[in-house]
Specification:
This protein is an alpha/beta fold. 50% of the residues lie in helices and 14% in strands. The strands form 2 sheets. Strands 3-2-1-4-5-6 form a 6-stranded parallel beta sheet, with helices on both faces. Strands 7-8-9 form a 3-stranded mixed beta sheet. Helix 7 links the parallel strand 8 and strand 9 (152-159). Helix 8 crosses helix 11 and helix 8 packs across helix 12 (260-273). The relative contact order is 0.09.
Length: 296
């Protein structure tokens, strides 16, 4: 059993911390939201008054925060309280440069660090079936892997510091682009008089097959238990997809990579996210594409 500090107990962090408790770890949690803290306490997470008090004596510190600024500021604030040899695992989705800065902050105080963003959404967090994309050295990965295994089914060591974040933004750029492509295909099929089920049955077993179609179909009524069949209640909210697409474009600009489809996907999600509630699932882009003229 490890003593774990968990900072950021929202829609993703709360269930992840709960799974660590169920795995037998002693988990001390902090969140700026009193509601999130209360919900986590009901799952056995011990209430910490601040991020600094949460990390005192912790073997592992896990962060799940909204932005790079939050991550860097939090690690800076807690660094003086980390015990030597402690491991920081940042599960937020941030840019690779900020992830590498977090690794340096940890090294300065004799701690280890992993950038370990996740894929799998709220459902994966609740069911402990997340995929972790991990960046950091081999020793840190070996130390962190047993903890990550309590929260996920697939743990992939992608390389050195920042590699986990690089993998995450590349993966989500693919997801954003393909969700638009699938949505456009259903929109076109509808205009051509092709039933949505026929469109799905063909594409799902042909060269158009992809995760956005067969695991997360945006057309309502095709697959059960996906957001499109539940009124697009968020599994992965549109603003979060937009955040990841923007991170990908930031990385493309800084590295000199050419990503024209990624850039266009970011433009589409900018328009979509500005017109829907913040909790609308990203697959709801199909409604936007069916009903709007993107030349506006």
């Amino acid at each position: 059993m490890s003593k774990i500090a968990f900072i950021g107990l929202g829609n993703m962090g709360g269930p992840m911390a709960s799974n660590l408790v169920q795995a037998g770890h002693e988990v001390h949690g902090f969140d700026v939201s009193a509601d999130h803290l209360r919900q986590a306490e009901q799952q056995g997470v011990r209430h910490a008054e601040s991020a600094v008090t949460a990390v005192c004596g912790a073997d592992v510190v896990i962060t799940m925060l909204p932005s790079a600024t939050h991550v860097v500021d939090t690690v800076t604030a807690i660094s003086s309280q980390l015990k030597k040899g402690a491991l920081i695992v940042d599960c937020s989705t941030i840019d690779p440069d900020s992830a590498r800065a977090t690794h340096r902050l940890a090294a300065d105080v004799g701690a280890k660090c992993l950038d370990a963003p996740v894929s799998g959404g709220i459902g994966g967090a609740a069911s402990a079936s997340l995929t972790f994309m991990v960046g950091g050295d081999e020793a840190a990965f070996a130390q962190g892997k047993p903890v990550l295994e309590a929260m996920g089914k697939r743990i992939v060591h992608c390389g050195g510091p920042g590699a986990g974040q690089s993998a995450k933004i590349c993966n989500n750029m693919i997801t954003g682009i393909t969700m638009i492509a699938v949505s456009e295909a259903f929109a076109l099929a509808e205009r051509l008089g092709l039933p949505a089920q026929a469109m799905y049955d063909v594409a799902a077993t042909s060269s158009g097959q992809c995760w956005a179609l067969t695991s997360y179909c945006p057309e309502p009524g095709i697959l059960p238990d996906v957001p499109s069949s539940k009124g697009y209640k968020a599994g992965f909210a549109a603003p979060l997809m937009l955040k990841d697409l923007r991170l990908a474009q930031q990385a493309a600009l800084s590295s000199g990579a050419s990503t024209p489809l990624g850039a266009h996907a970011a433009q589409i999600y900018t328009m979509f996210a500005s017109r829907v509630p913040a909790n609308r699932d990203f697959s709801g882009v199909i409604e936007f594409l069916k009903n709007r003229d993107l030349s506006e």
